[in-house]
Design brief:
Pfam families: Beta-lactamase (PF00144). By secondary structure, the protein is of the alpha+beta class. 23% of the residues lie in helices and 27% in strands. The chain is globular, with a radius of gyration of 22 Å.
């Protein structure tokens, strides 16, 4: 049985337009009005086509204590979306022959395990094996206190490697912190200075900079969590993530940045091709975002209770940026709504969180295959989370959307189970495959 939480009322908005590849602004306005009225999202959005802003909106509060509203000029911490900027700075340094992709990092960090084997490219693609510093004991209670370079390198050096360098890819903030320090060392300048000189000033990004303590007088905002009502989240200190998550920006600046990136105005088109070459689902500070056969690129961010999504579809020259300082309704659902709207695909929005008991997942578990699909698919669970894995590939989780239906927006995957028929309708990149269950249920 499916339990519905948060809001019992179901509101369905069908996003469809008469003309493909145009935004139905009225439908988007309706979505944001509903989110605002239901207190489910606070933040800003910008949609740009061919370098022209075609939609923007802000809802919610920058500071609940003073009732200060968010505006299109409000600036947010963008978290790990910072990595896209850092990757561009590193690739620019490579273009200038300051460093190379295949050089190892032992010259910079001799105390880090396997540093003599780990390359700059490994860091960029999360293939270093260096564990994420956020998992260290020193950050068990968050990272509200400033950390020096020496302190951070000491923390990272004490972490055991998760795997042999270049054997696979696992996301780790440590990689991009170290890349930031490498940039500072080879230029003898701070990350903030390099960001200003090489990206912000040339692109005239007036609302983007390396962040410090949140300042409402500078059109910044606090972040909030929701538990019956909005509660103010503690501020992380940006010295900790540095180039892994310390930038402040807003959606309009972010769309400019990613448009210029893909036009070859920040790094060369040759470097961009390397940046967007996907290996084991990782590019260099960027990920692929498939949508009904369309190919986009994306990076998400989370810091404190801020959330960011920045994506770009090169063929359509479509840029979308979402920044949030408080959410119950997740930004990924908004991205899906916008893309469905723009590409003329049906989309039903529900303001219900679907929560399944672990035993309700049992009917879905097992291996599925089809002569029409190149590999077997294993469906497993971890407590109340369902996971999918193509044999030989890494697994990822999927979320319930309706009875017997699940999806992962970032992977471009949709699943529809037919338990009574032992079948799975598997949709990937706009193509559907019918797979049959081959084994008995696997319970974990």
């Amino acid at each position: 049985m499916i339990k519905k939480a948060l809001v019992t009322m179901l509101l369905s908005l069908i996003f469809s337009t008469t003309y493909s590849q145009k935004l139905d602004v009225t439908k988007l306005d309706s979505l944001f009005k509903a989110l605002d009225e239901k207190n489910m999202f606070m933040g800003s959005i910008a949609v740009s086509k061919n370098g022209n802003l075609i939609y923007s909106k802000s809802i919610g509060k920058a500071d609940i204590a003073t009732n200060k509203s968010l505006s299109l000029k409000t600036k947010y911490r963008i978290g790990s979306t910072t990595k896209m900027f850092t990757s561009a700075l590193v690739l620019k340094a490579i273009e200038k022959n300051r460093i190379t992709l295949n050089q190892t990092i032992d010259k910079f960090f001799p105390t880090i395990e396997n540093s003599e084997k780990i390359t700059i490219e490994n860091l960029l693609k999360h293939r270093s094996g260096i564990a994420d510093f956020l998992g260290a004991d020193g950050f068990a209670n968050g990272y509200t206190e400033a950390k020096s370079e020496e302190e951070m390198i000491d923390i990272i050096s004490k972490l055991k490697s998760d795997f042999s360098p270049n054997s696979k890819a696992v996301y780790s903030n440590s990689n991009y912190y170290l890349l930031s320090i490498i940039l500072e060392k080879i230029y003898a300048k701070s990350y903030q200075e390099l960001l200003d000189e090489q990206i912000i000033k040339p692109l005239k990004l007036r609302n983007t900079y390396f962040g410090g303590k949140i300042n409402l007088q500078n059109n910044e905002c606090y972040s909030y969590y929701f538990s019956d009502k909005w509660g103010k989240e503690a501020e992380g200190n940006t010295s900790v993530p540095l180039g892994a998550g310390g930038i402040v920006s807003n959606p309009s600046d972010l769309t400019i940045f990613i448009e210029k990136l893909f036009k070859g105005e920040i790094i060369t088109l040759k470097s961009l091709k390397e940046m967007t070459q996907i290996q084991d689902k990782f590019g260099m500070g960027i990920f692929e975002l498939p949508f009904y056969g369309k190919k986009g690129f994306v990076h998400r961010g989370k810091i404190d209770e801020f959330r960011t999504v920045l994506c770009f579809f090169p063929k359509e020259k479509l840029a979308i940026a979402i920044t949030s300082n408080g959410m119950v309704y997740e930004p990924k659902k908004i991205i899906k709504a916008i893309l469905s709207n723009y590409f003329d695909k049906p989309f039903k929005t529900t303001f219900n969180n679907i929560v399944l008991k672990t035993e309700e997942l049992d009917d879905y578990l097992g291996e599925y295959s089809s002569p029409d699909y190149p590999s077997k698919i294993a469906i497993t669970k971890n407590n109340t989370t369902l996971s999918i894995q193509s044999i030989g590939q890494s697994s990822f989780s999927v979320e319930p959307t309706e009875k017997d239906q699940f999806e992962n927006i970032w992977e471009g995957i949709q699943l529809q189970f037919k338990p009574n028929q032992n079948q799975l309708i598997y949709e990937e990149g706009g193509k559907k495959f019918t797979l049959s269950k081959q084994t008995q249920n696997h319970k974990s």
